[in-house]
Amino acid sequence: xxxxxxxxxxxxxxxxxxxxxxxxxxxxxxxxxxxxxxxxxxxxxxxxxxxxxxxxxxxxxxxxxxxxxxxxxxxxxxxxxxxxxxxxxxxxxxxxxxxxxxxxxxxxxxxxxxxxxxxxxxxxxxxxxxxxxxxxxxxxxxxxxxxxxxxxxxxxxxxxxxxxxxxxxxxxxxxxxxxxxxxxxxxxxxxxxxxxxxxxxxxxxxxxxxxxxxxxxxxxxxxxxxxxxxxxxxxxxxxxxxxxxxxxxxxxxxxxx
Amino acid sequence: xxxxxxxxxxxxxxxxxxxxxxxxxxxxxxxxxxxxxxxxxxxxxxxxxxxxxxxxxxxxxxxxxxxxxxxxxxxxxxxxxxxxxxxxxxxxxxxxxxxxxxxxxxxxxxxxxxxxxxxxxxxxxxxxxxxxxxxxxxxxxxxxxxxxxxxxxxxxxxxxxxxxxxxxxxxxxxxxxxxxxxxxxxxxxxxxxxxxxxxxxxxxxxxxxxxxxxxxxxxxxxxxxxxxxxxxxxxxxxxxxxxxxxxxxxxxxxxxx
Lengths: 257, 257
Ligand SMILES: Nc1ccccc1C(=O)C(=O)O
Ligand SMILES: Nc1ccccc1C(=O)C(=O)O
Prior knowledge:
By secondary structure, the first copy, chain A, is α/β, with parallel strands linked by helices. The first copy, chain A, has one domain (3-25, 68-256): Glucose Oxidase, domain 1 (3-Layer(bba) Sandwich), CATH 3.50.30.50. In chain A, 19% of the residues lie in helices and 29% in strands. Chain A has 6 helices and 14 strands. Chain A has helices at residues 3-12, 107-112, 120-130, 152-156, 170-179, 205-212, and strands spanning 16-20, 45-53, 56-67, 73-75, 98-105, 117-118, 138-142, 158-159, 162-163, 167-168, 184-186, 216-218, 232-238, 246-256. In chain A, the strands form 4 sheets. Chain A has a 7-stranded mixed β-barrel with strand order 4-12-11-7-5-13-14. Chain A has a two-stranded antiparallel sheet with strand order 2-3. A two-stranded parallel ribbon of chain A has the order 6-10. In chain A, strand 13 (232-238) and strand 14 form a beta hairpin. In chain A, helix 5 packs parallel to helix 6 (205-212). The radius of gyration of chain A is 19 Å and the shape is globular. Chain A starts with a helix and ends with a strand. The interface between A and B is large, with 89 and 89 residues. Strand 3 (56-67) of chain A pairs antiparallel with strand 3 of chain B, so a sheet runs across the interface. The structure holds Isatinic acid (2 copies). One Isatinic acid (92K) binds at residues 32, 34, 69, 75, 79, 191, 193, 204 of chain B.
């Protein structure tokens, strides 16, 4: 048997399952809210082209209006000033988008503190238990935050001091970018940076350091409870938008039982 | 070794390659042109939200305006009147989107005749050589049409009598929908129906019969020359647009050497 015939057999017998990590993309999908004077992305809207009517008697279809960085989406390097001339989303090698995935579970810490910051020490503790983060792997941070996805206010979790959502510290972002060689960094929250990260040094350090290193960002993931800490395979599928700084993405994990 | 650790090893050694079957999605991506009085989809456009300027000093991002049925895209059953109450794109089970793929090569016939129609006899001849089309497989028709993708006029190939592009006959569409149990039907052209199919009985029979049967359509594929006739695995990734009749999709094939 070959690798792929084994895979097809395992999909058929449900020994390998396809787990959808993608949030539904609709008008109520939460969108990042940056404070003035910064501009924000539009929410998703559909505009009917026809709906079994004179404009199309046998068919229904819509135009889509949305943002590159809306819902479950990939951040390409060219999104950030630290990688201005880096890859746009259409030139990412497909080999980077399919590979091993590891999951770091910080639910307990986030339950106590919505402003929880992931530090290098948490990643080192994970490695002490599970082994070194493999080169080319996707690293996903399981915060439990996707439980809030149906309620945009709870998901964005902002008060007069700004949003309170977990993310990596500047040190952890720098550590991942320079000490390991991951393909991408994924989160359950609206962006890869913590809610308070606009005030960090540098501002939005996950964007700054990870995109600078050519590492991709991946957001608004769900169903991370269905992934093992190691051993699953991720398939990350942004649209190949020509010159795009990112794209809404479908994200599947292959999980073996 | 487990199935997935074998897969990760084979990806690492390039014994399994990720082949991108997706056309780039940009302003010059060809869009279906239906004749009046029918309405058509908008072409893709990007609208800057910020670009390293006052609206976002360290970041660049865009809003996206496009169509559900633009570029490489998936047709969900709810796109067509024959499956009005069928699945929208967001409720397709992920297990249907990852599976075996077979490729039927009709390049020679299409080179002689851009209006070439795939008939049940071509599919039966393929099965005589390669075995029965597996249940749950994606069936892709290799016409060579993607060679025209850089030139929208050549790709749409319309004259005063309408578009001249290959596709299935009504008989072939009915045969696939009723005699076999494929997950989806994919093509290199702008839509799953032939250019002349608006005049067939029923109009657009591939849409009519395949979507009625709960089979998905998949369009504007490229790089089919890199797939074997059997043995590859397809990963089809439409965005889970809530209530959507289809979606631009990323399509990867895993191919073993
Ligand atoms: N944090 C940000 C600050 C500015 C622009 C975008 C972001 C994102 O999170 C994003 O990429 O979704
Ligand atoms: N042929 C059509 C007729 C009407 C509406 C759409 C189509 C498509 O091809 C499509 O789904 O892209």
